[in-house]
Amino acid sequence: MLSKYVPSVEWLKRYNGMDFKGDFIAGLIVAIMLIPQGMAYAMLAGLPPVIGLYASTIPLIIYAILGSSRQLAVGPVAMVSLLVFSGVSTLAEPGSDQFVSYALLLAFMVGVIQLVLGLFRLGFLVNFLSHAVISGFTSAAAIIIGLSQLKHLLGIELPKGANVFGLLYETMTKLGNINFYALLIGVLSIITLIIFKKYVPKIPGPLVVVVLSSLAVYYFNLDQQGLSIVGDVPQGVPSFSLPGFEWDSIISLLPVALTISFVGFMESVAVAKAIAAKEGYRINSNQELNGLGAANIVGSFFSAYPVTGGFSRSAVNYQAGARTPMAAIFTAVLIILTLLFLTDWFYYLPNTVLAAIIMVAVFQLIDVKEAKHLFKVKKIDGWTLIVTFAATLLTSIETGILVGIGFSLIVFIWRSAYPHIAELGYVEEEGIYRNLNRYPNAKTYDRTVIYRFDASLYFANIAFFEEQLAKKINEDTKKVILDFSAVNDMDAIALDELDRIIEEYDSRDVKIMIANMKGPIKDLVEKAGWAEKYEERISNLPVSRYVSK
Amino acid sequence: MLSKYVPSVEWLKRYNGMDFKGDFIAGLIVAIMLIPQGMAYAMLAGLPPVIGLYASTIPLIIYAILGSSRQLAVGPVAMVSLLVFSGVSTLAEPGSDQFVSYALLLAFMVGVIQLVLGLFRLGFLVNFLSHAVISGFTSAAAIIIGLSQLKHLLGIELPKGANVFGLLYETMTKLGNINFYALLIGVLSIITLIIFKKYVPKIPGPLVVVVLSSLAVYYFNLDQQGLSIVGDVPQGVPSFSLPGFEWDSIISLLPVALTISFVGFMESVAVAKAIAAKEGYRINSNQELNGLGAANIVGSFFSAYPVTGGFSRSAVNYQAGARTPMAAIFTAVLIILTLLFLTDWFYYLPNTVLAAIIMVAVFQLIDVKEAKHLFKVKKIDGWTLIVTFAATLLTSIETGILVGIGFSLIVFIWRSAYPHIAELGYVEEEGIYRNLNRYPNAKTYDRTVIYRFDASLYFANIAFFEEQLAKKINEDTKKVILDFSAVNDMDAIALDELDRIIEEYDSRDVKIMIANMKGPIKDLVEKAGWAEKYEERISNLPVSRYVSK
């Protein structure tokens, strides 16, 4: 019972030296990666960099205790940071104390929402996010995030809240104000990060650029040349405090809190499932919600903004040999040590380097291959991706994901409203009734139509069913055999309509019979009294039994 | 070509004396019914009664020329009148000139929307309105309409815009102000209408109560006792005039115009289809949209408010022997004659009688039987009805229908996301593979699972598919035969996931094979290269071919 809600009980029991070795090395590597990333993502969220470090401590420990993934690296991530920025920046000035306090309240709300979803076992909701939607949405968000960092990379001021095209336009008009050092260091950092990622993956690129750029600023006094730097990072661990609960703020933050809860969970569970499948264990998505929810709630008491499991850091954690959530605890401890003793080291770190780290991290999320693949296999799924991508880019990240979900569900409904249909004939060699369009030589029967409707019957397609059936029938037709092998479900509306259709055809001397009825459909029509009314005309027997009659 | 867009060309060619006799009598009966109803519904819409008569002239003639139903009786109806009231009363004072001019603009907008929908062949959209939604929505609207007439029946003032419970509460507090004559005449009218409807259906009850009550008011001077009467009805036919086009008004009226276009079309096409089925001709729903659209546009130039085909009048028209749309033209001519010569006769008609006519007309739309039937056959469809009913009653008529559509589509998606599944065994007597739960004695095979998933595979149920499959498999399983006979469609997301699932089971030494693949699914997986990758493991052959392998 305890281990159901606290999965750590299980792995702690069997913890051994091998686990320790793998976990410690992975924890160290992730910590080195997380320190610059945490500060960068906090900057992206409109928060002081130190908040990103705070979010890399307590939440990691809570998730390690309660989460069901063994390798997931929880902490600040780009997408959630962008959502925090877009949600809170309408209420307070980015970087201000008020902004920070809203971000903490938001983390608390996200945690409560996730915990409630988990306790009510609503994790399945994430299944309604099609992969095409996730891919289109992620690619668009990556572009928005990348462009939002242009101002740091160029060292200019840009209006907040503008959309992608607005940002590009404003950037054009302000090209004259570019800070040369910001641009130079930023571009060099991007090149370095890409080279290290590709050719020297063992050495963490972010650490290299952070160290080198800080030294350069320090020795050449570049901060006196208008280059913007991180500056003072307060020393010490965050103390316990409650977020400010105000009813008005809660209402205003609710939409973005819901979006973060959902998007964060989705990102987290996708990467957790991928790793779990490789390792042969299973992820319980409701327990994931509990773990993330608790991490965010407790985190919000210790100055952490919303966190979730990240794609790239989890992959690094796994590849570096993490075997249990203990790796994440090591990461958290190393970051706490950093907060206690190393904060001075970040004083000369230029913001343009953090921007470069963000840009390199997010641009690899743009997935053109997936779009091509979907278009090749099934065009409409490719369009779902494009629509989601365009909606996210042109409106906002929250609207984009809603448009994507709506579009993908409409596509699904559309397909079931206009399904594939087939008139069947008998293929003697195989002993099977098959589509006459594909098997033109199949045997047909005198005055008889065998008709297969390839969908569940329900209110939205019963009219189409009737129309198409009417087209197959001519004056000579005396018998219609409906092959119901593909009718998986039927609602009461379709049932009543079908009853009327059979009666109408009866009155025109065309006898409709139903073969291959599935159990659940048979139960349903019997409830409606069809067993007496239509007797041997409906059954779960194959088409052949009706041809002879 | 002409007859495609102007169906009247067809029936006019073959018009004969028999047609004339049936049409004339039906046209006369409908006119007698329509005169009081037209005035009553105009009152319900917040318009002077004469507007209801105007709406019973030109629109009928235009529909007769362009519509595809031969018996549909177009004109003012209760539901649309209520929508006009709820949409326009937020912009102007009911009964005022401004209110009338908004109602005419609304008729024009409704006409344009319907015509555009018809020309773009979007009539199929009405299929997405489940009968459960229509039934719940109509019952609730009937209650709202009926209660909205309480003020006339009791002769009191009630605040407009209140919801059902507000209205009932306000009525309670004002019971002291009741006008005795209004209540008496109203209740007597209701009783008379019900009795005539039930026992003397040949004589039109509305005509009887209109004549008798007018005489009573005239002889006993009841209008001087505070009884509210129709008063002056302007003589003569409406002259041509353009509705006032103002951008702001158009924007404000757009939501209600869309609702009326859709709801009006739905009501119209439902009754037209029912009559056409009995008469053995077909309704073209796009041509219906063209006909109704043109009727509303041209009507709006001659002071008509929005019209559509009505349930009860169309039934009366049909039963009275109408054979062609000429019947509607006779009705229109008779109403024009009334406007020219008989308007004085309506001076003493009490409003309470019009209220009684509305109440009796709408309360028969409340359909409890349908709700019971749906609950008996399939509970969830009954709930769709209840949800729509409650939403319409508690919020508004426009919101109610949207909630209903949304709920019914969510129910459908929900069902396909958690479909029926079956593990199969061989039933020797029948030579068929059947569900082991229903046929426990069916033969199973060593280390083999035969699994049938009764739904199309798509992004929202592929996770469920995988989960359920995993449950069927134990350590001994070496072979899984997926019976794909019920998989009617598959999207690219499900395809990729299925590919991954097969690979994962391969790596665990469990061989997945797919039998009974339909043509469209086979095409799809071949596009994704499965023919080479999985070769003889996937096919359209029956399960039996895989059992032996």
UniProtKB/TrEMBL annotation, chains A, B:
It is found in: Membrane. Keywords: Membrane, Transmembrane, Transmembrane helix. The chain crosses the membrane at residues 24-44, 50-66, 73-93, 99-120, 132-150, 178-196, 203-220, 250-272, 322-342, 348-366, 386-414. The keyword Transmembrane applies. It is a multi-pass membrane protein. It comes from the Bacteria. Gene3D superfamilies: STAS domain. GO terms for molecular function: secondary active sulfate transmembrane transporter activity. GO terms for cellular component: membrane. Its main location: membrane. Residues 438-549 form the STAS domain. InterPro entries: S04_transporter_CS (IPR018045), SLC26A/SulP_dom (IPR011547), SLC26A/SulP_fam (IPR001902), STAS_dom (IPR002645), STAS_dom_sf (IPR036513). This is Sodium-independent anion transporter. It comes from Halalkalibacillus sediminis.
